[in-house]
């Protein structure tokens, strides 16, 4: 019964919280609308997710979210430092091809989104075989270090969560 009402419980929770944060009001009307969205959107989109992989490790997912939030804070400071204090000729922006071992589309999407959400980097493309992400980095003096960070900080954790 509960699974029919909430086919994607984490999405429902995320939608509920997002709506409350967007309206910035904790009133009965806001709560009712948040609940309607949390029920309706997952139910309407459920047919498009027939083979969604379950999150296999909820504590690892929570740890991943905390790591990403910390990395976003650090990257914001680093980008501000680069923009405010580095001379243009010293900035080494560049394209980096990041080989990935993830198999599920959901895990690859989360990885690409994480890279894009982190200031200073953006996922631009994926190879036709689905095994390489092309990212652009604002400052990449050592592309191998960036690849290593992505693989160890994000990809390894996503493997434990999704695969």
From TrEMBL:
InterPro entries: Cation_antiport_E (IPR002758). Its main location: membrane. The chain crosses the membrane at residues 58-77. It is a multi-pass membrane protein. Keywords: Cell membrane, Membrane, Transmembrane, Transmembrane helix. It is found in: Cell membrane. Belongs to the CPA3 antiporters (TC 2.A.63) subunit E family. This is Na+/H+ antiporter subunit E. The lineage of its organism: Bacteria, Pseudomonadati, Pseudomonadota, Alphaproteobacteria, Rhodobacterales.
